[in-house]
Specification:
The chain has one domain: Cytochrome c-like domain (Cytochrome Bc1 Complex, Chain D, domain 2, Orthogonal Bundle), CATH 1.10.760. Helices cover 45% and strands 0% of the residues. The longest helix is centred in the first third of the chain and has 14 residues, at 2-15. The chain has helices at 2-15, 20-23, 27-34, 72-79, 86-94, 96-99, 113-124. Helix 3 packs across helix 7 (113-124) and helix 5 (86-94) crosses helix 7.
Length: 131
């Protein structure tokens, strides 16, 4: 029975165009996708632009990068207990203005799940708060 489940999962992944490796995201592809983000964000600690630095974003409470002035909407989003991880970033990056009504972020979002997974993989490879 397990064989059939695995075969079904693999079949669905192939049909959807997602290899099992791609489902986890590809950091190299994510770096290319980040090109859409770097006009407003950096991945250098403390280096804010129009948007906050995304260095160490994975594991950080939303709306709390030190030294960045967030919208009240994003501050409230973080105060509700949202911590950035793969799932919360995936949801947010699908349609930022829908998820956080009143955010300053004007980016329309990434509609393709594989692009969001790749971007997540890239962001996970960046500086982490423990470094």
């Amino acid at each position: 029975m397990r064989f059939y489940r695995r075969a079904l999962v693999l079949f669905v992944a192939v049909v959807l165009g997602l290899s099992p490796a791609h489902a986890a995201g590809n950091a190299e592809s994510g770096k290319k996708i980040f090109a859409k983000c770097k006009a407003c964000h950096s991945v250098k600690p403390g280096k804010h632009r129009v948007g906050p630095s995304l260095a160490g974003v994975i594991g950080r409470v939303a709306g709390t990068a030190p030294g960045y002035k967030y919208s009240k909407a994003m501050q409230a989003y973080g105060a509700s207990g949202i911590v950035w991880n793969e799932q919360t970033l995936d949801t947010y990056l699908t349609n930022p203005r829908q998820v956080v009504k009143g955010t300053k972020m004007t980016f329309p979002g990434l509609k393709k799940p594989e692009q969001r997974a790749d971007l997540n993989a890239f962001l996970k490879e960046q500086w982490k708060p423990s470094e």
